Amino acid sequence: MTNSWTVLAGTLICLVSCTSIALAQPACVTQNMAVPPGANTTDRAAPFFIDTTGLDFKTSPPTRDPLSANYPRATELPDGTLPPPGAEGNFIIGPTHNPAPETIAKEGVPRGTTKSFTLSSKQSTIYNPGLIRDDVAGCTNSSIMTTVTAPDDKSHMIVTTSHPGIWSRTIDVYVPAQYVRGTEAPFIVVGDGGSNAYKDLATTLDNLIAQRRVPPMIAIQIGNGGQDAQGSQRGREYDAVSGAYAQFVEREVLPLVEANADVKLTKDPDGRATMGLSSSGVAAFTMAWFYPDLYHRVLAFSPTMVNQQWPHDPSLRGGAWEYHSAWTGPAGPNLISKAGVLTPAEPPGVPLIAAAPVKPIRFWFFGGDQDLFYPNPTIPDGMHDWTLSNALTAKVLAERGYHYQFLFVRNAEHVDRPTIAQTLPSALEWVWKGYPIP
């Protein structure tokens, strides 16, 4: 009996104390994937409007109708098929996504080799120190899922949990069997290196190179700096609409690739490509946008063409959303930073792609019908619909006469792995069209 009372007393004490501890811990807020609280979905003329036309909210994320008036017209292909080689414009594929035969290793095909090395922030000038955000253990992105935006600006997220830190990343260099030592080779820079999305990349390149559908190229997978989105090193590198990441690759990564893998990389921008997924997908485009003298070819899976730039830039308040569309906030003075002081500048112009002379960029990308939709409930800014952002990018590329291919993919989520396995060979072949193959 005494033991029973002891157990009961211990249970009651634990119940009180454990409940207090549990209440003291912040809840692990996961991705929202719905219209954020307090969002404007009714007044198109008011700031930060979120258009829900053509969205089916019975799924999370909502499923988009590819025939919605919000998206550019596209050619719908029979299920299981892809656009003809070299075709440009907008296409609808799916819902079935079987892996392409080129993603499977074949007997008798020469296989390339992969060499790896690591790089730390201590070896960097551009990204030293690194950036680390304090999140609750086991709760990814917790500090930005419960933060706030600036007063009267739903696009400006306040992040107070980031601080300097150290990063270390792995760089994997694929060298094709056909590479001739001492010669300059074309290459592709791959963001988010090591991702499972690229598990078929080496085999695919082996097969395509052997079939002479792409040139014998070096593939450089660069790991990201860690974490995700606003306030993280990865977000700092990929979501910034600037030339900083391209300079990091050019000045700090490529020389180490040549030294560690015993290769020479071409200086010809037509022989240089970039590739990425999600935020590294928009980074792949940004590299070519700011440095068309370095890169002409871009491939991206679910690129983050949304407002995820951090820190907030008053001269480009919509981040990557402003590649294709105007900032959604209220009209006001445009500001730039001069000597650390915010100074009024010229009024905001039209979106970046529409405003600039056409650049020699060849761009292949896809977006899924169940891609991300306002994953963070704290930023109802009208600029966080991934599918819409990709479709609007395709629209402005067409208006400006760019060479591009955009796939609207049925039955596909963000960075959809089955779709990547289905499209990777044809995407690589499309991106490298026109480059001489020995």
In short:
Keywords: Signal. The protein is built from 9 helices and 20 strands. By secondary structure, it is an alpha/beta fold.
Outline the structure in words.
Keywords: Signal. Residues 1-24 form the signal peptide. It holds the Pfam family Esterase. It comes from Bradyrhizobium cosmicum. With 438 residues, this protein is α/β, with parallel strands linked by helices. Helices cover 24% and strands 22% of the residues. The protein has helices at residues 2-24, 142-145, 201-210, 233-238, 244-261, 279-290, 352-355, 386-400, 417-431; strands spanning 55-56, 63-64, 75-76, 89-93, 113-120, 130-133, 148-150, 153-158, 162-165, 168-175, 184-185, 187-191, 218-222, 264-265, 272-277, 297-301, 335-338, 341-344, 362-370, 403-413. The chain has a ten-stranded mixed sheet with strand order 3-4-20-19-16-15-12-13-10-5, sandwiched between helices. Strand 19 (362-370), helix 8 (386-400) and strand 20 (403-413) form a beta-alpha-beta unit. It starts with a helix and ends in a 7-residue tail after the last helix. Mean pLDDT is 91; it is low at 1-25.
Which regions have little confidence, pLDDT < 50, spanning 5+ residues? 1-25
- The overall average pLDDT, rounded, is 91
Q: Report how far the terminal alpha carbons are from each other.
A: 88 Å
Q: What is the approximate shape?
A: globular
The share of residues in extended strands comes to 15-25%
Determine the fraction of residues in helical runs and give it as a percent range: 10-25%
**How many individual helices?**
9
Order of the strands making up the biggest sheet? 3-4-20-19-16-15-12-13-10-5
Sheet with the most strands, sense and barrel status: 10 strands, mixed
Total count of strands: 20
Cα Rg: 23 Å
Order of helices and strands: HEEEEEEHEEEEEEHEHHEEHEEEHEHEH
Derived from helix and strand composition plus strand pairing, the structural class reads alpha/beta
